[in-house]
Design goal:
Helix 10 crosses helix 11. The chain is mainly α. It folds into 2 domains: 193 residues, no CATH class; 130 residues, no CATH class. Helices cover 56% and strands 5% of the residues. The structure holds zinc ion. Zinc ion binds next to helix 8 and helix 9.
Length: 362
């Protein structure tokens, strides 16, 4: 059900950190998340993937026939070749990798040789015994291994880790944690999810931060930073409107704010107020108040404020229940062509429950 963005925006902008809101949040009980059960053989289940299993089969066959005649300047060939030449991967895993083609074709800054080298020797291990109830998967950069801990894996986790494996190198490995995870998960949502605007996975707050950065400096600069590992790209853009020392402090502050959040599921209000002040000042300098970009900024900023209170999974669900979901594509060209209008998506309570069945604890 679609609603009118304007009314909701007014509502959101009126949300202030008032004691009434805090006590309301605290009075709500803990939302229990039920993890959707997948069959172990179901890692590629053809249900949610953008590319059909038949299409994957076709590509697979094509590659076998073309054996030895690949053009490594062509991103599609590069990815398919790396997958097909990798003896560690099963055919099922190779088919999942074919889904990365759209993504790799659209990111112009990707180091193709690194992506090729990583994929060609990548190993995927299913380490169910080390599943601790929250941590679903890892890409281990040093050994070029993906580890899946969740005992009933699904392709979302595998795709997320595959995106890490494509982009991680000695430079990008040093990027702030929130930034790496936020961009990775937003890419996963936009390129591979059936419901690309609905973050049903692990990093809603990190994604909100990445979206704010995209609105500040442009999605292209964010993608370039994610691919090169050079945060000064973002810094340079921010400094067009702000004082360099303040920008430096701002970026460090966000990193500390999220580090504390990852550790304690809560963050100090000092970090938060610095984040709010600078961000507001930047938007006011760069954009007119009438600019539509304020809608997504307001929405994501108010979500990030929820990090102060703890119980982040619960707060996220409540935020969606109260405000709906602000819909706007950031990275995917196909989504941008399809969804020109920005709007709020409203969910009935049971729809949120349904969508969050797969919510993985942070
Ligand atoms: Zn990750």
């Amino acid at each position: 059900m679609k609603g009118t963005g304007g009314d909701n925006l007014k509502l959101i902008s009126k949300i202030v950190i008032a004691s009434a809101l805090i006590s309301y949040l605290m009075s709500k009980g803990t939302v229990k998340f039920t993890l959707e059960k997948y069959n172990v053989d179901n890692i590629y289940n053809n249900k949610n993937l953008k590319i059909s299993e038949e299409r994957a089969d076709e590509l697979f066959q094509l590659l076998e026939e073309e054996s030895g005649n690949y053009n490594l300047d062509n991103e599609r060939d590069l990815i398919l070749t790396a997958a097909i030449e990798n003896p560690n991967l099963s055919n099922v895993e190779k088919k999942v990798i074919y889904n990365l083609v759209d993504l790799i074709e659209e990111v112009p800054y990707i180091d193709k040789r690194v992506a090729y080298a990583n994929l060609k020797e990548l190993d995927i291990l299913y380490d169910y015994e080390n599943y601790n109830g929250t941590h679903l998967g890892d890409y281990v950069y040093n050994t070029n291994e993906i580890k899946i801990y969740y005992d009933t894996p699904n392709h979302d986790v595998l795709i997320h880790e595959l995106i890490h494996s494509l982009f991680l190198n000695i430079y990008t490995n040093k990027l702030p944690y929130y930034f790496k995870e936020g961009v990775t998960e937003l890419l996963q949502d936009e390129y591979f999810s059936d419901n690309p605007y609905f973050e049903e996975s692990s990093y809603p707050y990190e994604i909100a931060m990445v979206k704010i950065l995209c609105d500040m400096v442009g999605f292209d600069v964010v993608l370039k930073t994610y691919t090169t590992g050079d945060m000064s790209e973002i810094e340079k853009e921010l400094n067009k409107y702000m004082v360099p020392e303040e920008t430096k402090k701002y970026l460090e502050n966000i990193e500390m704010m999220f580090d504390q959040f990852e550790e304690k599921d809560i963050t100090d209000f000092d970090y938060m107020s610095n984040f709010l002040d600078y961000t507001k000042a930047f938007f006011e300098k760069k954009y007119l108040k009438s600019n539509k970009i304020y809608e997504s900024y307001e929405y994501n900023k108010e979500l990030i404020i929820k990090m102060v209170y703890g119980n982040s999974g619960n707060n996220y669900v409540e935020y969606l229940e109260e405000n709906g979901y602000y819909v706007k594509p950031y990275f995917s060209k196909k989504l941008k062509e399809k969804d020109k209008e920005y709007h709020f998506e409203h969910f009935e309570d049971n729809e949120i429950d349904k969508a969050l069945k797969k919510y993985k604890l942070i």
